[in-house]
Specification:
Layout lengths: L3 E3 L2 E3 L3 E3 L8 H9 L5 E2 L16 E3 L5 E3 L11 H10 L4 E5 L4 H13 L4 E5 L10 H4 L2 H12 L6 E5 L5 H10 L4 E4 L3 E3 L2 E2 L4 E2 L6 E4 L4 H15 L3 E4 L5 H10 L1 E6 L7 H19 L15
Parallel strand pairs: 3-16, 4-7, 7-8, 8-9, 9-10, 10-15, 15-16
Antiparallel strand pairs: 1-2, 5-6, 6-14, 11-14, 12-13
């Protein structure tokens, strides 16, 4: 009932983690698997190790959600081998998230993922808080095309482009698909600031961070809806998914799978179980046998 295929990857149900939660060490993969996810996504990996920003790097907001500026901290591409090996022990698909400042850096990490038999790579073209990476590339459809094309031309495993909020996101999505991406992850966190009214200054050392969690969910659903409407692409919906209802919204808007991020910070196993169970019961209630039949249904009724 919940089996799905996205970007040529077969999943027993549509729930995976969002990049950025865990996924830079072998033990992180086993923890993610223990949550009951259908696939695991690594944290964003760059060619060389990167140190993140100084604390504080994560702030829980009184209005709901989080702002974080980790700074793409990661141990570099050499860790990919052990991450993939750990995922294969559990026979679970693993998607390697990749960050880079140019085509060569994306290719360098993608080749490492391909060589070690990862199931796919997810190109981080949307990080909102690390200068020279992510959203600075993804807001320009020409850059999206160039990076995706370069990676697709170099490796054999599927390429997924992760795009963020921008005025040209539909055009960027079209260019990613034109360049050969098998799927899209929509969206990343949204650039934001939180100011402490007593210290009179921004809380994060980087000043800017990425807003995640329930506050961005309606925006993420809108982006999934708009991109699916124009492209009918394989989409992984991401942004403020906290229960089966928010997951179902993503699916109705056009997502074939969903990623959960901020919600996994509290009782992650229960969150995943509740989403999976809730989606099954929802399909029965609306009289649909396979979740694939619900993908994009909001465009048809």
């Amino acid at each position: 009932m919940l089996e799905t295929v996205v970007a040529t990857i077969s999943l027993r149900h549509p729930v995976m983690n969002a990049s950025g939660i865990l996924g830079t060490h072998r033990e992180h993969i086993s923890r993610l698997v223990s949550y009951g996810l259908a696939a695991v996504v690594t944290k964003t990996i760059t060619p060389e190790p990167r140190e993140g920003y100084n604390p504080p790097i994560i702030v829980e907001l009184p209005t709901g959600g989080l702002i974080n500026a980790v700074g793409l901290e990661n141990p570099g591409k050499n860790v990919i081998k052990e991450l993939v090996e750990e995922a294969k022990k559990y026979s679970i698909p693993i998607i390697v998230s990749i960050g880079g400042r140019n085509e060569d850096e994306f290719i360098e990490v993608a080749v490492e993922a391909d060589m070690n038999k990862a199931d796919a790579v997810e190109l981080n073209l949307s990080c909102p808080h690390t200068k020279g990476y992510g959203v600075e590339i993804g807001v320009d459809p020409k850059n999206v095309y160039s990076v995706v094309k370069a990676v697709v031309s170099t490796i054999k495993i599927p390429v997924v482009a992760k795009l963020g909020l921008s005025d040209r996101v539909v055009e960027s999505a079209e260019k990613a698909l034109e360049a050969g991406a098998k799927g899209l992850t929509l969206i990343n966190t949204i650039k934001a600031i939180y100011i402490d009214v007593y210290s009179l200054k921004p809380v994060l050392t980087n000043i800017y961070g990425g807003l995640s969690g329930t506050p961005i969910h309606p925006i993420a659903v809108r982006i999934v809806y708009d991109v699916y409407k124009e492209t009918k692409a394989d989409i992984i919906g991401c942004g403020g998914v906290v229960n089966w209802q928010t997951a179902a919204e993503m699916i109705l808007a056009g997502a074939k799978a969903i990623q959960v991020g901020t919600a996994l910070m509290r009782d992650p196993k229960r969150i995943v179980e509740d989403i999976v169970k809730g989606l099954s019961e929802w399909l029965e209630t609306i009289g649909i046998k396979e979740i694939s039949q619900a993908v994009g249904l909001a465009h048809k009724v």
